[in-house]
């Protein structure tokens, strides 16, 4: 297929048959996709900031608030006027949060594996890649991986100051084992 496009008044061909023009078009696509880097190594393009994955630091989650090995990557921190933070959280098999609640709602977007979220006094709900859980403010809950599988989600929380999350006791091991088996299907 021989494809042509006009970009900024320049006729470009997106076919190897056009030689130099195709190379210019490829360079334009790369430049448009990344833009110039700022001093922090981020890409800014039309007021959009792209933070490359290679620039993030993965940190262990605080052991006082989690059971098992849990890793966190901060994706976005609140920058006025926004109050939203986003964190990629990866749970090793059997890892989970303590019981906790937030002053504002929490949105969990499952990205890998099978995990669960459980509200105190209710049965657990399964989370698979692509599922979204919305936890209202003040609801005591926990979330994490099922036994035998990695699980990852992105947590979105609107912060209401530094103490937005109240951490409670760990989920009892017997309670976790009774519910953390892979769902059928």
TrEMBL record:
Pfam family, one: Cupin_2
Cupin type-2 domain segment(s): 88-145
UniProt region (Disordered), positions on chain: 25-44
Domain of life where this protein originates: Bacteria
The name this protein goes by in its record: Cupin domain-containing protein
Origin species: Roseicella frigidaeris
